[in-house]
Amino acid sequence: MPAPAQFSRAALAALLTTLIALSFAAAPARAEPPRAVVELFTSQGCSSCPPADRLMGELVRRGDLVTLTYPVDYWDYLGWHDTLASPENSRRQRDYAEARGDRAVYTPQVVVNGATHVVGSDRKALGQVLETSPALPVKVSLRRIDERIEISVEGRLPAGTGMATVMVAFVAPPVDVAIPRGENRGRNITYHHVVKAMRAVGVWEGGKAVFQIPASEIRKLNAGGCAALVQIEKAGRPGRILGAGTL
Asked: Strand 175-179 and strand 139-145: pairing?
């Protein structure tokens, strides 16, 4: 049916934009916890990493996963300094290996739920881990209230566990990087959900609890959003992830 003559194209476009915005605002939040947290350790200086980076781009579109990318800096000596890497990312990967007791540190490496690791480009192995991993047992939800981000945590700690740490990872929007030197010379690679910083915001001891951070932290870090992880620590090193949510 043709539009009435008194409606301009600009007015119709504005109306359509408003209706779309309202439909998103009315959409219910995801009720079920995500199936898994997928953490990719990668490097712009690693020739084996681009397939894993592409796979991560597919996983971020799944609605049942929390995905995080950690560029590491220990391959920088190969001729190209990773523009997104940080020593903190490399340390998190090493801490995972020490907590597991296997000292397996390599790229591309994926760690699922803070426990199981597989080669980040091995689609079949990763699929098997995700298929067999139970959904995270602790419910985590995030919402913005004025100038605060509120993190709600609800559930039970595993038997014999006294506490878990609530971590917030600030993530960047998709980043395209042209690499002129090193093993990936001449490639343009897109990185998804790159972690710009992580902050411990509190201790969770089971039950219901609410944690808050200033929303300005996202702007200060030039991040696109954030994810919250409820994670058991072993001797100060990251271990099993019990719950996660994103904003």
From this structure: unpaired
Instruction: Report the predicted TM-score, pTM, of the whole model to 2 decimal places.
Output: 0.86
In Å, how far from its chain's centre is CA 87?
Answer: 18
Say what the pLDDT of residue 143 is. 96
Q: Are 117 and 111 in contact (CB under 8 A)?
A: yes
Chain length of the chain? 247
Contact 213, 87 (CB under 8 A): no
Sheet holding 36-42, edge to edge: 65-71, 36-42, 109-112, 116-119
- Determine which helix (DSSP H) or strand (DSSP E) holds 50, and give its type and residue range: helix 50-59
Give me the residue label for tokens 């049942």: 64
Alpha helix locations (H) across 104-190? 123-132
Separation of alpha carbons 86 and 99, rounded Å: 20
CA proximity to 155, closest of 238, 235, 234, 245? 245
Tell me, what amino acid is at 10?
A: A
Distances from the Cα of 97 to the Cαs of 36, 70, 92, 148, 174, in angstroms? 19, 15, 9, 34, 27
Q: Which residue has the tokens 């959904």?
A: 135
| Average pLDDT of the residues of the chain | 88
Q: What is the pLDDT of residue 234?
A: 87
Q: How far apart are the first and last CA of the chain?
A: 40
